[in-house]
Please model this.
Amino acid sequence: MSKETPIHVTSGWQMLPINLTLVIGGFAATIFVIIMAANVAQGFAWLLFLTILVTIAGVISSVGHFTLQPNEARVLILFGAYQGTVRESGFFWTNPFMTKLTISLRARNMETQRLKVNDKRGNPIEIAAVVVWRVHDTAQARFDVDKFEEYVKIQSETAVRHLANSYAYDHGEEGEITLRSGVDEVSAALCRELQDRIAKAGVVIEEARLTHLAYAPEIAQAMLRRQQAEAVIAARQKIVHGAVSMVHMALDDLAAKHVVDLDNERKAAMVSNLLVVLCGESDVTPVVNTGTLYT
Model:
């Protein structure tokens, strides 16, 4: 793998007066020599060639100037060979024959497309994620992969697909992490997966989180009915558990305070009536019994 190498370049402010002198002075000298040659028939050809050469050298040298903004880097290549990377912001000058490639070091956001994949249990789901990344090693980003932005995009979508295949959407076994319940764990797993995949591109993952998670349209209605049924069952279980606790407490209080002595048949009738009152969905209309259970 390639490795970034810092390189020292000359300040542009030091070379600017020299290059301006070469360009302006050479141009002025060329005009002066042409005027002198018009008055004198010969003897100025070599001097004219020299002044033109100085002017061209000044123009070529001026190409070596470049500027860098904060969080930018410039990769320098000389005749196909990597020379180094400049990370400091400012105005600089380097060999004018060097190729200067600019790479942004700022954090970037990328949101994947909504992908339709199967979760761990084979249910079709739609999933998408947002990835925050930045370039860490400019040499790897430029030389080890082709178009590192496209590389990050494709590998991110591949990682999201693999993540969806590794976790169930919901309703996992006891203690099992799912895509819906384990948000932090899933995000951490996605970050690790992405970092392993794109490390060769010299890129660092700052953050990765799911932005869209839903069942595929063809099973969404069925899954919604299942969720509703499970919610009703859970609510019923809680209601029954609470009602049984209240009936038990009522019978214990009646027996402890000797309010009334109840045989098993009367206890069964009281339990039945209390459970109907406590577990019923509609209001209960009381019925006054003026007789006994035995008549």
Observations:
- Residues 129 and 210 are 4 Å apart (CA to CA).
- The chain has a mean pLDDT of 81.
- The two ends are 96 Å apart (CA to CA).
- DSSP finds seven helices and ten strands in the chain.
